[in-house]
What we know:
Order of helices and strands: HHEHEHEEHEHEHEHHHHHHHHHHHEEH
Structural class: alpha/beta
Number of domains: 3
Strand order of the largest sheet: 3-2-4-1-5-6-7
Number of strands: 9
Radius of gyration: 45 Å
Bound molecules: guanosine-5'-diphosphate, magnesium ion
Amino acid sequence: xxxxxxxxxxxxxxxxxxxxxxxxxxxxxxxxxxxxxxxxxxxxxxxxxxxxxxxxxxxxxxxxxxxxxxxxxxxxxxxxxxxxxxxxxxxxxxxxxxxxxxxxxxxxxxxxxxxxxxxxxxxxxxxxxxxxxxxxxxxxxxxxxxxxxxxxxxxxxxxxxxxxxxxxxxxxxxxxxxxxxxxxxxxxxxxxxxxxxxxxxxxxxxxxxxxxxxxxxxxxxxxxxxxxxxxxxxxxxxxxxxxxxxxxxxxxxxxxxxxxxxxxxxxxxxxxxxxxxxxxxxxxxxxxxxxxxxxxxxxxxxxxxxxxxxxxxxxxxxxxxxxxxxxxxxxxxxxxxxxxxxxxxxxxxxxxxxxxxxxxxxxxxxxxxxxxxxxxxxxxxxxxxxxxxxxxxxxxxxxxxxxxxxxxxxxxxxxxxxxxxxxxxxxxxxxxxxxxxxxxxxxxxxxxxxxxxxxxxxxxxxxxxxxxxxxxxxxxxxxxxxxxxxxxxxxxxxxxxxxxxxxxxxxxxxxxxxxxxxxxxxxxxxxxxxxxx
Length: 533
Ligand SMILES: Nc1nc2c(ncn2[C@@H]2O[C@H](COP(=O)(O)OP(=O)(O)O)[C@@H](O)[C@H]2O)c(=O)[nH]1
Ligand SMILES: [Mg+2]
């Protein structure tokens, strides 16, 4: 596996992002574990990158402490003392200075510096761990913690217990992915004759290979006789010199966690909202909020006002007697004039009925079921929560959206005035005609010189009056046709405006949060892929 520090940094950032995205959605145990790995990895990377921490681990009496002493050329570790020994790990470093920050982080209190000008071991930190199979719980806790933190592990076994299940099932097999940063040492080789030793080595090798530890080298030593100690030391020197154990180990940790997150995320699903279902939901929500009623109100109000303005004046006042539907709903221009703009708009539209509510619920259910189809349960719940999270505000917000929509019915059409003037002009001519007819004879004799015409036996004044009435009624009919057409187009326009206002609210309160959740799912997937790459 390639593991450069740069690549590790981007993988680590991706793992953190995946953890953040999956928080509260993924399996808590898996997400928590990944979060811990991300934190630990970040800390280790921030500490000395030059040093390589190698731990000697293994079962009771295998010879960890003896090897620790042999490798460090000291007698620091107590060998074969009465059990249980201490539960603490012990560290040794070479050169002039110990990497104390690193040892603090590892929480290793017992630390020793081997004064040496040996450049080869300068950056090695060697740890002697307690027994993993100790009867003391505290020992195992220390081992488990250290196994997670160190850069490389040497598993020390002896000819008697090399196949021990506690070691193989408890540690080696689960750590197979870390085979690259582990090594197995068969110690106490002096206890077996050469042929038996060979068999033992072959057997152990086969065991390790079967567990997926093909990449872990197997070495043979005798701490007592000194056999193999130089080889072991050389391999440690090589590991330290390559300076890649730490980056490698941390990378393996990050990848392993990311893979577990990937399993938790399950197979990739579209996690997408269906556009036509969205439209459908918006429409049913608009309907439940009263868009249809308002649109009808706009049509009615326009007709009523248009008829009043352009009808024949002697009867058009009747139109005004009918209540203004928009005023009743506390809506539109009429309401807007009465309300100050800062006032909270609230219409008098009726609340959604059961059927409308059921349609909204069903539509939304279908939309989110489809959008979250195939997602893990935690995510499905989160999508559902996102869709309904602001349900308590929704009805009010939709109402406010309707109340603040400009229905474009503030002023009537320009031609209404013209028609109105013409109508009044025609009323004047009706009166003129009547006066001419009734007062005509008197006027004619009084010398005003107004002639009296008679057509077909009917006085001209009557012709004028009747003609004007007919013209007024005709004009009213024409006006009415225009008004009805205008009312239709105003209603259409109002519907468009209302729909876009409703759509904005639904987008902000329902679709937006759902989309954010879906985006979060995709982000988690992308981050996990990035972290395992
Ligand atoms: N014959 C033999 N005995 C060993 C060897 N290494 C360690 N021992 C003995 O095994 C016992 C346990 O050793 P120790 O280093 O304390 O093992 P630890 O429990 O793994 O730390 C001691 O009595 C050692 O002297 C070895 O290579 N050959
Ligand atoms: Mg020991």
